[in-house]
Amino acid sequence: MIISEKKHLINHNRTEKMKNIPRIFVGDNVKSGMIIPLGRDTAHYLTRVMRTDVAIVFGGGNEFNARVDATQKNIIVGENTKRADPSGDITLYFTPIKRTDDLINMATQLGVKKLVPVITEHTTAQHINWERMKKIATEAAEQSNRNSVPEITTPIKFSDIDLSKIAFADERAAHGATRESHTKINSILVGPEGGFSDSEFAALDAAGAVGISLGKTILRAELAAAIAITKITK
Question: Where are the beta strands (DSSP E) in 4-162?
């Protein structure tokens, strides 16, 4: 066997082993040598459900090998794996919707760095449990092999956004009107189930925001967000 083939097999076997190791988010300031208390649920998951004393812990873009100590109450952070964080640098401005949990889940899996809830004229779902949304984002990050959990900010008003530096999902494309741009943009805005109001469209157009077509059909808001993210990360 030539050296390159042997190296490929070693890396493949290492990857296969890593797939079976639980990944746990432990905070953005994690460092090698730290001893971190495990919550009851996490300890039960590792030692009783997964029946293991090893894990991958991550946070702040870094990933570390780790092991549960003899008391099964703490996790000891080992060496940095040096694996690059696959997350991107996208900020998603989105209107809270009935399926905000699905939107958060998909956006996290797609590598969004920051999630900013925006209250628009047609926003109806304003009573969202944001602590639950943060938990959903954490679980999605653990499952999608990210090294970071996206930040979820407090809700802001539509008028608070700098519309001159943003792209937006333009549902007017479904009626034959759109304008596309291939300029590198890292921020995307997606509206509510009822779409943007006429005054909001006027504000977006006046500011030179980039309207992005999502196709000729009207999409559910959570699916529109996922497709819009892929549009600006190509």
Answer: 23-25, 35-37, 54-59, 62-68, 74-80, 91-94, 114-119, 151-152, 156-157
215 vs 70: CA distance, rounded Å? 56
Per CATH, 3-80 and 91-232 having the same topology is answered no
Domain residue ranges of the chain, discontinuous segments joined by +:
3-80, 91-232
Question: 91-232: which CATH topology?
Answer: Alpha/beta knot (3.40.1280)
Q: 215 or 95: which carries more pLDDT confidence? A: 95
- Cβ atoms within 10 A of the Cβ of 80, count? 13
Q: How far apart are CA 86 and CA 111, in angstroms?
A: 7
Prediction pTM value:
0.84
Distance CA 197, CA 171 (A): 11
DSSP state of 45: I
Lowest-confidence range among 27-36, 148-157, 169-178, 190-199? 169-178
- Among all chains, which residue has been given the structure tokens 């009626």? 175
Q: Mean of the pLDDT values across residues 179-196?
A: 79
Domain 3-80 in CATH 2.40.240.20: yes
